[in-house]
Amino acid sequence: MIRKALAPAIIAVAALLFAGGSALRFFPYMSEISDFEVVQVIGIDKKGGGVEVTLMADRKKSSGGEGGEGMGVTGVMSFDGPTVFEAINKMNIYSDRRRHLGYVDFLLIGESAARDDLEKYLDFFTRDYETRYSMDVFIVRGATAKDLLRKTVTANRNVADVLMNIDESVKALSNSRMLRLIDLVRMLSEPNTAAIVPAITYKNTSFAEMIGAEKPEKAAVPDGFAFIRDHRLTGYYGDELARAYNTITGRAHASPLSVRASDGQYTALELLQYDIGFDTYWDGGTLTGVSYDITISANLTEQLGRENVFTKREMGILEARAAERIRDELKAVADESARLGRDGIELARRVRMKNPVKWEAIADDWDEIFPELDVKIDVECVISRSYDLRERMDSR
Predict the structure, then answer these.
(1) Neighbour-count burial of 347, counting CB atoms closer than 10 A to its CB (0-12 exposed, 13-18 middle, 19+ buried)
(2) Does residue 65 contact residue 164 with C-beta atoms inside 8 Å?
(3) Using CA atoms, how far apart are residues 234 and 367, in angstroms rounded to an integer?
């Protein structure tokens, strides 16, 4: 019986395999791996009524030996069209290799496209069979994705490596985050909250020298977060508020903080551990305010002055000044979110988790409630240890 059931399927597959013409389109075209150019970064910009796509890929320059592989060569190509799909396919006409999008690590959205309609420019990447939901997304602040890719790339410098290093800098600075496409799509579909997307820009490279290699015109660097409301870019949390956003949403890692001791000289702290308490205040069914109670553990890592900071009084001064600085940053990011008119600090999530039943009654009115809320923030900083620094250098 099983053989009889399989017979029609076998006949159908055989017919497709041996048929000519358009029947062969049922199966993917066979191609050699050398025919593909693996794209690592895609940039999307608005251009007129359409879109401009910039692709960045690594190529290997042959070393001349049999099977040898030479140094990497970075290729950047741009093309425009009415849609992302058409622009990418037009590029294949002008290239000796077909673009393969299965290994794209980063998607960069230019500021003008993000202000136009972010969802419109993401649609292709959520449907295409090659692209992955795991790619990380950045908004290019104050520029186009095309300019960032072209200005930060040289023949032997790959901006993808720079973007990957941002993931490491996040752990040491808490000044950005990595946001996968799948998480961005989820954020855009959530009611009551803004989508907060890491921003990136480029700056002069006068601070660096490239020995034995060409120096890029600009350097790609994190630049805070883009504030997306109703699928459109409406503002930013600047670089000075990036740590505060990560802290108030519970995503902060290690972070350096320099505060002045009583002698006016800087002492360096490393913020390491964040304990966040949260509470809500109600008048019947009306939410009147919320409070954050945050305790931060820090290490003392460097002292520039000659004052003995290892006294109870001096340590208290350092802890109080650090707490005040962090509290001001947290208040500023909460105020900026209220000014932009949408919950961009994930406060709705905390209220819902704290009071799930009461939340259901106010959820539909959250956009009106959030900007008017009284948000109290209390911060305590505790210096836990000082590595090998236990006294002033001149007293050792």
Answers:
(1) buried
(2) no
(3) 15
Dihedral sign from CA coordinates of 332, 338, 339, 340? positive
At 206, which amino acid appears? S
Specify the residue for token string 């602040």: 141
Contacts of 47 (CB under 8 A, 6+ apart): 80
Distance CA 134, CA 103 (A): 10
pTM for this structure? Answer: 0.84
Distance CA 335, CA 138 (A): 24
Helix (H) or strand (E) holding 9: helix 2-18
How far apart are the C-alpha atoms of 181 and 178, rounded to whole Å?
10
Please name the residue that has the structure tokens 């600075």.
173
Domain range 251-396, its CATH number among 3.30.2130.30, 2.40.37.10, 3.30.9.10, 3.30.300.210: 3.30.300.210
CATH 3.30.300.210 placement within the chain: 251-396
Query: What secondary structure does DSSP assign to 91-146, as a single string?
Result: HGGG-SSEEE-TT--EEEEEHHHHHHHHHHHHHHHHH-SSS-TT-EEEEETTS-HH
Residue-wise pLDDT for 68-109, tens only, equals 444 456 678 899 999 999 998 888 777 666 777 888 999 999
% residues pLDDT > 90 (the chain): 63
Structure tokens that stand for 190 in this block: 């959530």
User: Is the separation of the CB atoms in 251 and 347 below 8 Å?
Assistant: no
Other beta carbons within 10 angstroms of residue 210's beta carbon come to 12
Residues 173, 168: Cα–Cα separation, whole Å: 9
d(CA 184, CA 178): 11
